[in-house]
Amino acid sequence: MIELGGGAIHFSGPLTMVTVNEALRESTALFAEEGPWVLDFSGVGEVDSAAVSLLLEWARQSARSGRKLRISHLPENLQSLVKVYGVEDLLPAA
Predict the structure, then answer these.
(1) Domain named STAS: which ranges (predicted)?
(2) Is 91 exposed, middle or buried (0-12, 13-18, 19+ CB in 10 A)?
């Protein structure tokens, strides 16, 4: 589901209530790496509101650690949820 490569953390598969806890656990070690956090969502398909919560948690973690967070290839369905919940200003531009 998550792998590090090419200077980014790549996500694949669904990000839903069923999978976000595992994604959070898997990401913890990867976020310990040096440098900015580039999150690539090009491999993500199915999402629900839990994915928005996960994005917000990663934004909080990056703010606490003083590291820059960049989101790339955010799927349209997740972009829509971010807008519906009105949290687009809390996340770096995708």
Answers:
(1) 9-94
(2) middle
Q: What is the pTM of this model?
A: 0.90
pLDDT of residue 87: 96
Look up the domain containing 78 and give its range.
Answer: 2-90
Cβ–Cβ under 8 Å, residues 17 and 48 = yes
Q: Phi/psi of residue 55, each to 5°?
A: -60, -45
Tell the residue number behind the tokens 């980014």, with chain if given: 8
91 or 7, which is more confident?
91
Report the pLDDT value the prediction gives residue 93, as an integer from 0 to 100: 66
CATH code (residue 48): 3.30.750.24
